[in-house]
Specification:
about 475 residues, 22 helices, about 75% helix, globular
Length: about 475
Amino acid sequence: MSLPDHTPPSPVAEAALTPTGSFAAATDRRRVVFATVVGTTVEWYDFFVYAAAAGLVFGELFFEPAGPQFATILAFLTVGVSFLFRPLGAFIAGHLGDRHGRRLVLMLTLVTMGVATALVGLLPTYASIGIAAPVLLILLRIVQGVSAGGEWGGAVLMAVEHAPTARRGLFGVSPQIGVPLGLLLASGTMALMAVIAPGQAFLEWGWRVPFLLSVALILVGQYIRRKVEESPVFREIATRKEQTRTPIAQLFRRHLPLVVIAALIFAGNNAVGYMTTGGYIQNYATNPDGPLALDRGPVLWAVAGSAVTWLLSTWFAGRLSDRIGRRSTYLLGWVVQLGGVLLLFPLVGLGSVWSLFAGIAVLTVGLGLTYGPQAAYYAELFPASIRFSGVSISYAIGAILGGAFAPTIAAALVQATGTTFSVTLYLAGMTVVGLIATLLLRDRSGIPLGPDHEAEQARSPIVGTR
């Protein structure tokens, strides 16, 4: 039921309006949120279980001839190489999403990621098939990267474009909390397998089980996502037959500076986040030749615990951004994140599992504050007709500049300098980059997202421009 044209909506009713001006049923909105959380959790579980294995076993199993130290760097490079292919996934998904809808892309990315993950769990090691093993591992990681490049943008727009205007930040948190949930699930599963298959058994077969579980998770995710309606913004665009024929070309021709600034914002968060999600802390803490030499299982449980604090701070940040604005939430987050960076290695260096947990838990508070508002913030930056391309490509480029090689850079810095202080400076520098990029953009919280307001959306949000 819609209000008569002459009756202005009340504040309560206005909060329930979709971006196209229609009223969304509460059950439909809940279904979208649930499907977005479940789907992104499955997608990022697949992505992070690989990163955890890279930090724990891939160096020994797939790159052993390179020697212990260089094998670790090579294993982390396979984590990073997938990021180079995220823009390809973002380009493909952006084109399909702006031309054919958000829902189609989400179905495709989930299957692609899951199949690649399951195949990693079946791969023979270097001892069995020689150089073919790392080559196949890298190829499957590339497929994961292409899938991840397309997933986030679709999930974000499904959530935010279904959201009431006054609650975009809260709705936009649903794909964001899928990331810490995926980390929690991946770390928890790996930790459980370290108990079930300790020591040599973990190297022989235990690490494979979390990868093979992806098959079951795909089926669950696909079933739930098929129940979700297409985004109301895209439905209206499609009804009017106003899909952009070349969304990516228009994005780069009209909004290239905005794409770069948005990418730098995410890079500031992503470089720091990949200390845990990229497997670096796990490797640093469990390395038998390193300064800590902690047991694998407790370290994995500590990382899983930090995923909970990350989830809570991410949810809080999304909700806070509806009250004080996306930009203000980000600025608060950069300050807290910088504090977490400075405390990380002093706490981890104390040498106990509890101090390790404290270090990464404090870090995740800042990470959540600079990740929770991102979905709504990005969606409000780009015009409706090219929004999928804009958010996906900005996110993918930011991932390359930030997290792609953060674990590799950290490992190389420690080897070159002999101290983690160099890593702290690197992470602090990336945090400052994110802060500066945020200051370059105006807050557009609450801007109309529907196709009727394309002209307003197309105005540059960069400070100092019109």
